[in-house]
Amino acid sequence: RGYILRLVSRPDSSLDPTSAGHWDLNNLCIVAALCTQSSTEENDFLHGYTDTSLTWNALKSCHEKVGPITQILLIQQALAIKYIHSEHLSTTSTTLNELVRRIYAIGILKEEDFLTIIMLNTMADNLPYVENHITHALTTSTSSNPYGPLNICSHLDVEQQL
C-alpha cells in the first residue's frame, strides 16, 4: 500500500544504493503481482508500466471507464455459464471467478441495473431475439442516452402486441 500511494519514497541511490535496489525490486514485484491478478484485457492496458503507483492509477482508470452496461453484460455472461461434466469443472470455476472479480471491480450495482440483468436473463429461453435486440441497445446506450428497464418494458409491450 505504501508503494501504491507513494508513501514509501525511493531512497537516493547515490547515498544508499542497497536500499534503492531493494526499493526497485519491491516496486517491480508489486507491479508483477498487480499484473498477475489482472485479466488479459487489463494486462494489455497495463503493458509497459513499471511504477507501482502509475500502474495502480492506470488500473483504476481502466475500471472507472467501464460502466454499468459492461457490468450488465458480464453478469449476463456469468449467468449463462453452466457446469458440463465432459469439461474440466475447475476451468468453469476459474472462468466464473474471473467474471465475478471483473463485475465487482466495476462497483456495486444499482437497483435499475440489477433489474435490467434479471429481465434479460428471464427472457433468454423464450424471447432470444428480443434479448439480442435489447442487448444491442444496451451496448450502444450512453450515460446521456441510457437504456434501462423502462425501455425494456416498452419493447416488451410492443412485442406482446405483435
> What's the helical proportion of residues?
55-70%
Euclidean distance between termini CA atoms = 58 Å
DSSP summary: helix tally: 8
Q: Which class of secondary structure composition applies to the elements?
A: mainly alpha
- Give the uncertain stretches in residue-range form: none
Q: Overall 3D geometry?
A: elongated
Q: Give the number of DSSP strands.
A: 0
Nearest-angstrom radius of gyration?
Answer: 22 Å
Which H/E pattern describes the elements? HHHHHHHH
Mean pLDDT: 85
Strand content: under 5%
Biggest β-sheet, characterized?
none
Description:
With 162 residues, this protein is an all-alpha fold. Helix content is 69%, strand content 0%.
List keywords for this structure.
mainly alpha, 162 residues, 8 helices
Secondary structure topology:
Elements: H1 17-36, H2 40-46, H3 52-65, H4 68-80, H5 89-106, H6 111-123, H7 128-140, H8 149-161
Can you give me a brief rundown of this structure?
With 162 residues, this protein is mostly helical. The chain is 69% helix and 0% strand.
